[in-house]
Structures are given as structure tokens and as C-alpha cells.
Design a protein that fits this description.
single chain, mainly alpha
Amino acid sequence: MEAQKPNTKATKPAAKAKSNAPGIKNASWVIVCCFIVAVCLFIFWFGNPMHFDEEQHPVDIWGTIYKGGFIVPVLQTLFLTVIVLAVERGIALSAAKGKGNIAKFVAGVKACLAKNDIDGAEKLCKQQKGSVAAVVSAALIRYREMDSNTVLTKEQKVATLQKEVEEATALEMPALQQNLPIVATMTTLGTLVGLLGTVMGMIKSFQALGAGGGAVDSTELSVGISEALVNTAFGIATGAFAVIFYNYYTNKIDNLTYAIDEIGFSIVQTFQATH
């Protein structure tokens, strides 16, 4: 039992060193900042008098967007949040990917393990500097410890090594998936808010039709239709961008996870075959 204490302590420093997917920790500030930007755009740009004629009819697309009503800043907030978090995830996953091709890195580590060249595998990890390399590096540290351990049985060593791979992977995954649930939420929320704006615009249009009696108030009718269409457009754009980015980054994370699982399995199998 005393011989296993150094092994437990050695796990903690390795776990702290696995910050290979940097990113925004608190996305609520992103939403707040995007809301401020959206409101400023709505008031000072879309609502600028230069976009309207003397009768307050929009003369360009910016004025038309302003006629979309107060739902527009909300939809712009959602849209900007999707864009900002998509850029943030792109930077984070690029750092998590590390340097060079992951497939070549995995093949190189496998070749080193086949030759029992642990030093060479660790050198490759230092060069790669990615999430896969972080997991492999932690596993190799445990590999060395189990290699020199004379207390545990072979089955216990294999189980300990496998547990180290699983723990290292579990510590890395939250950083990779961070903020993606928010992007996934925007796929539905953007569409629903856009639909709300569409319904409100259509209500205004029907009110204009009903209030005019036999005559149609074209101004009020156009305002209602503009509000409906602008909100529809923003809602669809937000949902579409959110779906595209979410699926794209989820696929990249799946590729990283597959590489981690593959190399982790190879490390455990190599140890089991050579000890």
C-alpha cells in the first residue's frame, strides 16, 4: 500500500498540465456584451434618420431592419453570440489539435511504443502540444511508473494504466466541449424568437387591415410585414449558423476523441504485451 502513494500523487501534476483547449470560461459575459452591441447597432445605426425619408419610411435595408421592432436586438444578440462562440471554439480546438497532423502523431507514437522507445514518444508529445498529446503524455508517465513498479501484479498495472488514460481523457473533454451546448441552444432559440417576431409582425398587419375599414393603411401594413420578414430572416440565419457551427465542431471533437481512444488503447495493449 505504501508503494502506491507516490503513484497517486504523480497523477495530479499531470492533470493540471492538460489545459490544451483554452477558451471563454463564462459565456454569460459574451451574451451581455453581444446584447449591448446589438442595442447600440439598433439605435444608432439602424435607427439613424439617414435611413428614412421625411415620412419615416425606410429608404434602404438598414431602415427596413429597424422596422423589425424590438425583437431585432434580441435576435441580433443571439446571432452575434453564435458568431463569437464559433470563433472562440475554432481558436480553442485549433490549440487542442496541436501542431502537425494528428494521424501522423498517433502513428509516430505507435511506432515508438512498438520499439519500446518511451523517450521518443514523449518527445513527440512535446512537439505536438495538443489534447491528444496531453493524454498520451499522462499515460506515458504512468507507463514508466508501472514499468518500474515491483509491488503490483501485471493485471493491476494494466488496470492502473487504463484508468490513467480514462481519467486524462475525462479531464480533457469538458474543455473541448465548452460553450457548444450554448451554440446548440441557439439553433432552437433563434428560430423560436424569430417566429415570435414574425407572429407579432403579422398581428400588426392584420390590425392595420382591420382598423382601416374599407381602406387599407398601406403604411401600417408595410410596417407589420417588414417586422415579420426581418425577424424571420434573422431567426433563420441564427438557427442555420448555429447548426452549421455546432455540427462542424462536434465532428472535430469526435475526431480528437477517436484519436485519443486509439492511442490510449495502443498504450495499454503495448504494456500488456511487453510485460
